[in-house]
Write a structure and sequence with these properties.
Number of strands: 5
Helix content: 25-40%
Radius of gyration: 18 Å
Distance between the termini: 26 Å
Length: 215
């Protein structure tokens, strides 16, 4: 299976835009000596690929995700294979919510990035504490994730009634994409002791469909 498909063409530009934002806002320049962790890299490795496109001389990219993600994904895309072979990228099977699985990285990561994934994490405060635990002093974190996603408001409403619980296992996305979120991320991060060098930016981006078949 070649991962470089239509989905790749859709996701990579967005991930590239995110990495460029990190570059500008956090003043990233030469990363040749940096260890960068891609937190919850997902199906298409979009953020890892974007890092390697923008910073081909990066010291190392650690792509971290849950064991079943690594087990079930193919790494056969030729555009990505060379980075695996030359060890520019390594894969780590660990949970960002479980401190003991991350101890090998404690205080060793220069930069942590996460694109389109943090909304999938249940225990967000625990995850942020573990991110802080892995960073070197003066390290940087860049994250892009959904705060509110109206498309998922109605599944959450259905789930709240209880009668639909039997179908929950058939759609693993339901617990992860909030219809609305009241999590106060900035306060949470400041309590953990993050220094907010770049303020949280909230943007509203409407999703437009040509017809009902695209929904």
């Amino acid at each position: 299976m070649d991962i470089g498909t239509e989905e790749w063409n859709e996701f990579l530009p967005k991930a590239n835009e995110f990495i460029l934002q990190c570059m500008w806002k956090l003043k990233w320049k030469n990363l040749s000596k940096d260890v960068v962790m891609d937190l919850r890299f997902g199906m298409y490795f979009s953020c890892s690929r974007a890092i390697l496109e923008q910073y081909p001389d990066v010291g190392c990219v650690i792509a971290l995700d849950n064991p079943y993600i690594i087990r079930d994904r193919s790494f056969s895309d030729k555009r990505f294979e060379k980075h695996i072979n030359n060890e520019k990228i390594t894969f780590s099977s660990a949970s960002i919510e479980t401190r003991i699985s991350l101890e090998a990285y404690a205080g060793k990561i220069d930069k942590i990035v996460s694109w389109n994934a943090f909304q999938q994490i249940h225990r967000k405060e625990r995850a942020l504490e573990n991110v802080y635990h892995m960073l070197k002093p003066g390290g940087h974190v860049g994250m892009w994730f959904y705060l509110n996603n109206p498309e998922y408001s109605w599944p959450w409403k259905m789930k709240s009634t209880g009668k639909w619980d039997q179908y929950q296992q058939t759609d693993p996305l339901l617990p992860y994409h909030p219809g609305t979120s009241d999590t106060k991320y900035e306060e949470m991060m400041q309590e953990i002791d993050f220094k907010m060098t770049s303020k949280i930016l909230v943007q509203s981006k409407p999703i437009l469909y040509r017809d009902d078949r695209e929904v």
